[in-house]
Amino acid sequence: MKGPNKSLRGLALGLGYFFLYVPILSLMAFSFNDSPVVTSWTGFSLRWYSALFADDALLRAAWLSFKVAALTATAATIIGTWAGYVLARMGRFRGFGLYLGMLSAPLVIPEVVLGISLLLMFVEMRGLLGWPEQNGMFTIWVGHVTLCMAFVAVVIQSRIRDMDRSLEEAALDLGATPLRVFFSITLPLIAPALASAWLLSFTLSLDDVVLASFLSGPGFTTLPMEVFSRVRLGLKPEVNALATLFILAVGTCVILANRLQVRKESS
Asked: Taking every annotated instance into account, which residue ranges of this chain make up the domain ABC transmembrane type-1 (predicted)?
């Protein structure tokens, strides 16, 4: 029975990889297509990469999305780490249910509702305080942090609960303060979870189109918004070239991170 079961597992794994990666590989292949029709191959060419780097609107949108995603991931990781630590270590304090509900709300509330709520909040703030003057990078960043913070808290909470507390307790017995223990013991132990949470937040922010549509202003168009607006008029090969560069960049980062982790574990 081992032979058929092994073959069946191999077939299922192969079909899964085929389903996941063939569309990505075809997109990368057609980014080198000379034809302006993305579904018709006429020959190898780098013309669409040249057109991409000459497309100022697309490059501005990509740069804005990268900045917002990096700032969002950093802020969400910092806030979400503290929130997850409180959930995992502080027990059921007074108001714990409200705290948990407010923290988990962005996970269950539809993004459309969240986007409308944040938009109305900024409109009221602008009327009462005169700030922010207009929707833009800051308002998009606030919306993305609100969403991503909840995901970070879930990741960090799970990691801290599964962590062995003996090292922290030993440090406390030796006279270290709780804050010193957190930064010297807890943070290094949950570093992989922090990296995962940061990357998850970066991806969620970079991929978001709903919140950005509500919270963006004139001159602040993110990359997903730009791509969606162009797809309505027909998919252009420059988008394939941009997606290929994204895939190569992400793949390189993942490979380097895996190599570093393997080297660290073997040393």
From this structure: 62-257
